[in-house]
Each structure stands twice: as C-alpha cells, then as structure tokens.
C-alpha cells in the first residue's frame, strides 16, 4: 500500500465532493488521460478538467461519497458514488463508479471510471429511451456524441 497515492486519491474525491475543480486539477498530471463509458477517452489536463467542470455544472445538488481507496506505487483504485439531479431531464441519478488510476511523478496520469451505462441511462433519461435503448450501440454512440459536442461547446464558452 502506498499511502501517498491513497492520500492523492482521497484528496481528489474530497475536492470533487466540494466542487473544488482547482484542487482536483492539482491531483492530475499535465498529460493525464481520462476515460469512462460516456466520454471514453479524453487527453490532457485542460480537456479532462473541462469535462469535470461541465459535469458539475450539469447536475444540481451533486453529492459525492467514496470508499475502498487502495494504491501501490504505480496504480490505484476506489469506489465512488455520485448523487445528483440531471438538470436537462430533472431526473435523479445515483451512479456507482469503480475508478482505476495510474500514477506518474506522484500525480494521476491515467484515470478510468467504469459504471453501468444501461443503468445510468435508465436513471438519467427515464422510460422508454433509457430503459429500452440504453444497451444499444447506436444509442450509446448518440449519447457519447452529444456529450463530446457539449464538452466542445463548454470549452469554447
């Protein structure tokens, strides 16, 4: 167990829970890459942090809890939960996420979040779209394309 990296993961989630994107940014390496079922792959601290700012702006009353932090000198993991109301749909979402990390220069250089896209889409979009279409590749691509467009627009504003 590498206590420095466990503390780094904890600091990241404490900052996320407070919506403190400046503190979150200090946990990331300049060359960080991020991936999850929605955004898949984002490269560089500016792009990754823009995604976090966008996500925090799209949900109202975001509550973050985390547990099961573990790390070695090179890799780490955590479980975190995001509870929020999606402002675009007014629907309440409770997203359970498994996070995986790689470290370089005592910073997070790779961050991968994994969650059940089908369950998320059902909570975020409701019926019938989320329930019936959440598992189809075409629907996932549509949602991902929308997310990337929103991120591009957010970075331009």
TrEMBL record:
Domain of life: Bacteria
Pfam family, one: SnoaL_2
Domain SnoaL-like: 11-111
Name listed for the protein in its UniProt record: Nuclear transport factor 2 family protein
Originating species: Nonomuraea mangrovi
Taxonomic lineage from the root: Bacteria, Bacillati, Actinomycetota, Actinomycetes, Streptosporangiales
